[in-house]
Design brief:
- This protein has helices spanning 16-27, 44-47, 63-80, 100-115, 125-131, 153-166, 210-215, 248-254, 316-329, 375-392; strands at residues 6-12, 32-36, 51-52, 93-97, 121-123, 141-145, 149-150, 170-173, 177-182, 188-192, 195-204, 219-220, 223-233, 243-246, 279-280, 283-284, 290-293, 299-307, 338-349, 355-358, 365-369, 409-410.
- It is an alpha+beta fold and 411 residues long.
- The chain has 2 domains: 6-82 and 153-221 and 351-410, FAD/NAD(P)-binding domain (3-Layer(bba) Sandwich); 93-146 and 224-349, 2-Layer Sandwich (D-Amino Acid Oxidase, Chain A, domain 2).
- The strands form 5 sheets. Strands 1, 2, 8, 9, 10, 11, 20 and 21 form an 8-stranded mixed β-sheet that branches. It has an 8-stranded mixed β-sheet with strand order 5-6-4-14-17-18-13-19, sandwiched between helices.
- Helix 1 (16-27) runs parallel beside helix 10 (375-392) and helix 3 packs across helix 10.
- The chain starts with 5 loop residues before the first strand and ends with a strand.
- The relative contact order is 0.20.
- Bound molecules: flavin-adenine dinucleotide.
- Flavin-adenine dinucleotide binds next to helix 1, strand 2, helix 2, strand 13 and strand 19.
């Protein structure tokens, strides 16, 4: 579409959810405009750890499997078939087991996952060291998740934007959206800091800013910003070959120390915090860990997730706790100094589930948000499912679990 201010679908937000939705809509021949107030990938989608995938589709794929395994295939296509070098690499993931209690928990989980057709296996520390030589020999073992991988978050998000533009989508940066008005005929008028736009359908893909953008329409989208922070070493020779995580947080969350454990066990009532945080207020309830080595040689790790409004300042004490945990798993890390730290804001829904679909009470208004701490690895398929919904007028059955009607209210 050649820079017209009219479109079939206008998307607000140039993170992974917005650009993936734009790409899949453009593939289906829709005239798409995307408005991003910064640059593409300037928020969470550009500063995350790039961890992808999980355990495969399983025998009876639920929403989580669709989003994770489906996105994994889309990333693969971008790298292998479409010529975008997004540093996609899928060596698998190693999840450290620190204690005997975590060992029992991990064994039960792996057996359950295997019986459901997912890919997971248990390794002793000795076995793990045959594929990850720097792994600690004193750990209780590892869960090996063969379907895990990594991509460069900025390169991948920018590539989706470029792929959408190559199909005719009009990707506009530096457009801060400030007002949304529905017209009599159901179409939308959108005002940004740089102009006015007219569109049939409107998509909110604004991540941690879902609440303020929802407020422009008088609706409450229950998504809260959660600060995630990371750190990196100077480039080092190739020494870490898998995506590295820890069982500790999953164990603590499942044993009730954190709040609820997201999509696979959603029976408990909501409380004032979204699920799967490392802190409640100032109190640490668990340690969380993810990371690995990037193509440029930097070793990067992160973990903490806490509520602190729209604050981007990395918390030094949290970085040290995270570095300590990373060193327990990969002792080499403890001998390297930290060269930089950063933080970003993740969009957490209050019930831990994604919010993808039509917003009730309005015509032609859609949302894709709430992908929390794994939105990079789940965003491409979230965008595809929403694009299919908008294009066909029908939601895929698997989206029932993500229905915005369950949680979006009028103010
Ligand atoms: C430190 C950290 C590590 C992470 N690690 C991983 C990981 O390893 N794997 C994984 O899968 N996920 C990870 N995540 C989570 C993942 O990054 C997010 O879930 C995902 O990027 C969210 O994508 P999004 O498109 O919803 O939001 P965003 O990327 O935040 O994009 C939303 C966009 O909307 C724009 N916007 C907001 N308001 C307006 C407005 N009024 N007008 C115009 N534009 C607007 C913003 O500028 C922003 O660019 C991590 C996150 C962080 C912070």
């Amino acid at each position: 579409m050649a820079n017209s201010n009219e479109s079939d679908v206008l998307i607000i937000g140039g993170g992974i959810c917005g650009v993936a939705t734009a790409f899949h809509l453009a593939q289906q021949g829709e005239r798409v405009t995307l408005l991003e107030r910064g640059d593409i990938a300037s928020e969470a989608s550009g500063v995350n750890a790039g961890g992808l995938g999980g355990m495969g589709w399983g025998n009876n794929p639920d929403l989580q499997s669709y989003l994770t395994a489906g996105s994994f295939e889309i990333f693969k296509t971008l790298q292998l078939d479409m010529g975008y070098d997004i540093e996609f690499h899928a060596p698998g993931g190693l999840q450290a087991i620190h204690t005997a209690e975590q060992s029992d928990f991990a064994r039960d989980r792996v057996l359950r996952l295997q019986s459901e057709g997912y890919h997971a296996e248990l390794l002793t520390a000795r076995e793990a060291r045959t594929i990850e030589p720097e792994a600690s020999e004193s750990l209780a073992g590892f869960v090996f998740l063969v379907k895990r991988g990594h991509a460069n978050p900025t390169k991948a998000t920018v590539a989706f934007g470029q792929a959408a533009a190559a199909l005719g989508a009009d990707i506009k940066t530096g457009h801060d959206v400030q007002a949304l008005t529905q017209q009599q005929d159901g179409s939308w008028q959108v005002r940004s800091s740089q102009g006015e736009f007219r569109t049939r359908s409107l998509v909110l893909a604004v991540g941690a800013w879902s609440k303020p953008v929802g407020n422009m329409l008088g609706i409450e989208i229950p998504v809260t910003p959660v600060k995630g922070q990371m750190w990196a070493t100077e480039p080092a020779p190739p020494s870490i070959f898998h995506v590295i995580t820890s069982t500790e947080s999953q164990f603590d969350w499942s044993s009730g120390q954190g709040s609820r454990v997201s999509m696979k066990s959603d029976q408990q009532p909501p409380d004032d915090f979204p699920p799967e945080l490392t802190h409640k207020g100032e109190t640490r309830i668990t340690r969380h860990l993810y990371g690995g080595q990037s193509r440029n040689g930097e070793i990067i790790f992160g973990g903490d997730r806490r509520l602190s409004g729209y604050d981007y300042t990395p918390d030094a004490e949290g970085i040290e706790v995270n570095r300590g945990q990373a060193s327990e798993v990969i002792p080499l890390v403890g001998r390297l100094s930290i060269s930089r730290t950063w933080a970003g804001l993740m969009p957490f829904s209050m019930d831990g589930k994604p919010i993808i679909g039509k917003i009730p009470g309005y015509e032609n208004l859609f949302v894709v948000t709430g992908l929390a701490s794994s939105g990079f690895g789940r965003g491409p398929m979230a965008g595809k499912l929403l694009a299919d919904y908008i294009h066909t007028g029908h939601p895929a059955p698997v989206l029932t679990e993500a229905d915005p009607a369950r949680c979006i209210t009028f103010k």
